């Protein structure tokens, strides 16, 4: 297909495999889950069908290594085209696990990564707080030294997979006056004494909640990376994942467009099909063009990341910004083409309309992406 002419055969095969498995195997399991809570059957199925193996790649010596940014994008686009819940379950597993995979001690990696890769445990990435969203350096959850470790006190909010995740990558202040240079990352099991939480219910069926840390003891072995270097751990994870949020958006946008095209071919009014009205067909052409532009931006940012080019900040920011805004436009246009039926509860587009909103806010709101791009444009070349 010309849309994917820039991909290799194995890459295209990965995208197609994710889409097919999601449509045939995962969508029914997703539909049977409880909205807003972790669907453990779905996680196990992602492992059973080999998709988590793509996120947690094995070395010949049995160790684990990072997925490529491009493969992550292809998995996320393919899954999103057929099941947003399956897509989200896979993405959250990676987001929560990668700080551990990239910066954990050998013992913590050995304890958690095999279970996460097998879909037997769920992970969460806990950065946001009630008073620290976009401005993450303002976080106030504190970690104070305590004998052989640290005590964590404070609160996290809007944490995907909370409160049911089995292990969290938690970012806490260890040097309160040092801003982003005073943050440390920790691996915190759900069973830790003093850790509690409640689910939150959003517009979409996303598993998400709040976490309260009431003097939670975390042993020194559970520090991820170095003390006061946790922001780097968070940013390295987000650098890998940011283009793939765009891929999630592209997958949703493509599903919306496919549905609108089918509808425009079939639905008749005024003696012709909707697609025969130029006012409709040109809207579809516009959406298709923007989706392809978004896809190419996403793949270009992912390829830059995989080529080791750093920083990839502006490329990833452009990809995430353009793809998530395009997806909102695509879903809205597809609803307009469908008319009232798209608003019925249970319709694909009603579902996508609820799902498409959040990616413009999380992992850096659109305004933050524009900040990254404009700072790069206006930077002092010296
Ligand atoms: C579905 C979902 C899942 C999430 N999952 C996680 C998770 O797993 N882990 C986690 O840690 N967090 C998660 N979050 C939280 C998310 O990362 C934050 O919502 C996000 O960082 C924005 O923070 P905020 O909501 O507090 O908005 P604020 O920071 O209060 O910003 C509100 C708005 O102000 C504007 N704004 C803010 N700063 C600027 C600026 N500098 N310039 C211009 N405009 C600005 C933007 O329009 C922004 O949307 C999730 C959120 C959602 C919706």
Textual characterization of the structure:
With 382 residues, the chain is of the alpha+beta class. The protein has 3 domains: 2-122, Butyryl-Coa Dehydrogenase, subunit A, domain 1 (Orthogonal Bundle); 124-228, Butyryl-CoA Dehydrogenase, subunit A, domain 2 (Beta Barrel); 232-377, Butyryl-CoA Dehydrogenase, subunit A, domain 3 (Up-down Bundle), CATH 1.20.140.10. The chain contains 11 helices and 12 strands. A 4-stranded mixed sheet has the order 3-6-7-10. The longest helix is centred in the middle third of the chain and has 37 residues, at 230-266. The mean pLDDT is 96. Residues 125-128, 133-134, 158-160, 202, 206, 208, 358, 361-362, 365, 367-368, 371 line the site of flavin-adenine dinucleotide. Flavin-adenine dinucleotide (FAD) binds at residues 125-128, 133-134, 158-160, 202, 206, 208, 358, 361-362, 365, 367-368, 371.
